[in-house]
Amino acid sequence: MKFLIEGGNKLSGKIAVQGSKNSVLPILAATLLVDGKSVIHNCPRLSDVDAAIRILTDFGCAVTRENDTLTVDSTNAGNCRVSDLLSRRMRSSILFLAPAVSRFGKAQFSFPGGCEIGLRPIDLHLSSLRLLGADTDEKSGMLCCKAVNGFKGNRIHLTFPSVGATETVLLAAAVSKGTTVLTNAAREPEIVDLANFLNKAGARIFGAGENAVIIVGAPALNSIEYRVIPDRIVTATYLFCAAITGGEIEITKTKPQLLEAVFPLLEETGCAVRRNKNTVFLSAPERLRPVRTVRTMPYPGFPTDLQSPVTALLCVADGTSVVTETIFENRHKYIGELIRLGADIRTEGATAIIGGVENLHGASVRATDLRGGFALVIAALKADGKTVIDNIYHIDRGYETPERVLSSLGANIKRIT
Ligand code: UD1
Predict the structure, then answer these.
(1) Which residue has its alpha carbon closest to ligand 1 atom 13?
(2) Where are the domains of the chain?
(3) Same fold: 2-15+231-416 with 23-220
(4) Confidence of residue 139 (pLDDT cuts 50, 70, 90)
């Protein structure tokens, strides 16, 4: 599958944003802990969500979808092994490890390999599970984890505030004996969303979204109905799409308060941004101004998932901008593709120095990863002529029918085979 984009149209109009991928994946993992049904609203249709559903089905859960609502019935879950294909296909499969061990006393996964944006080790997940009483064994690419008498509360300090490891601790400690105190926890809104889901089902988690989280183990979790938060990364990427074309956009059903690190940057480029509780409105100038420095940081800093989209945006600014990645070691692969579109970008280690050009030019390019893939869409919307983006399965992992959303705003974009 490819996208064919003919650039140059100014985007204008109103869209509602999809639910958050990074919330729905750990919440789907958490449904394994629930005795009964979980009804989850605002679930986007994404290939990563489909992979998570297949993992749950492998475990013996019954999963049904009606529009954006997923119902997971985990009453008959029984299998504790995830197929090699599924655990390798999606890195987030690691989030299913703690709930599976909690539920079955043991679980067996294929070791997730590296991925497009770096090695992404899981040492913090495993050391946390060991502190909570699990035995882990890694042999021939397989990972076995056991806690036959369930997890037991402990004190855990993460050496880095990893989002996934924080979620693993919440998922392991929610149904456990005793109390867990987690320090240097990640503070991302998706962690708060997971904690809200677990608490609504009967868990006792205090302080999610802060540096220290206390989890008082509950004996079991009950059936629940829950609505996932809107996707802050997708909200920002569509703002960037409108901004690069000099357009205007209104995004509804979102949570602008989760993007406080992004709005000052957009204002620095000359965009006017207005927001209220669930809506954000952006109006862009004819030519964007450069920004002095953008540095990715754990929340509430500038998100690493927006590093490539913002780099694409700044390619056509009127001057030089600097963007530094501090979270992942290999998140610059897409830059070579932006250069094919006429961008002037130089990298020095983790820093990209972007000399703004008047305009980009259509070319054939390849998506290298999810966010880097969407960065090419942003660039192509502005570029003169036609751009073909190959390997868009990366983009489908995180953006629900972007061709429909962007066409509704006036873009000329088609999905082709
Ligand atoms: C999550 C998000 C991803 C986002 C990232 C950082 C999901 C499904 N994905 O990924 O979109 O880019 O947070 O905001 O929510 N690390 C270790 N050992 C570990 C775990 C992580 O060294 O055991 C390192 C990673 O290699 C990376 C850094 O910590 O350099 C951050 O990773 P982490 O916060 O765990 O990201 P993910 O949870 O994988």
Answers:
(1) 163
(2) 2-15+231-416, 23-220
(3) yes
(4) confident
Q: What is the mean pLDDT of residues 17-24?
A: 98
Above 70 in pLDDT, residue 330?
Answer: yes
Q: Catalytic residue among 43, 61, 80, 115, which? A: 115
**3-state SS record for 237-281:** HHHHHHHHCCCEEEEECCCHHHHCCCHHHHHHCCCEEEECCCCEE
Cβ(410) to ligand 1 under 6 A? no
Nearest CA to ligand 1 atom 5: 163
End-to-end CA distance of the chain: 5
Fold of 2-15+231-416: UDP-n-acetylglucosamine1-carboxyvinyl-transferase; Chain (3.65.10)
- Residues 316, 341 contacting (CB under 8 angstroms): no
pLDDT tens profile 82-96: 777 777 777 888 999
Cα of 165 to ligand 1 centre, how many Å? 8
pTM given for the model: 0.97
Q: Whose CA is closest to 46, among 31, 68, 66, 30? A: 68
323: left (phi over 0), alpha (psi -120 to 50) or beta: beta
Q: What CATH number belongs to 23-220? A: 3.65.10.10
CB-based burial, 45-54: b 16+ in 10 Å, e otherwise: ebebbebbbb
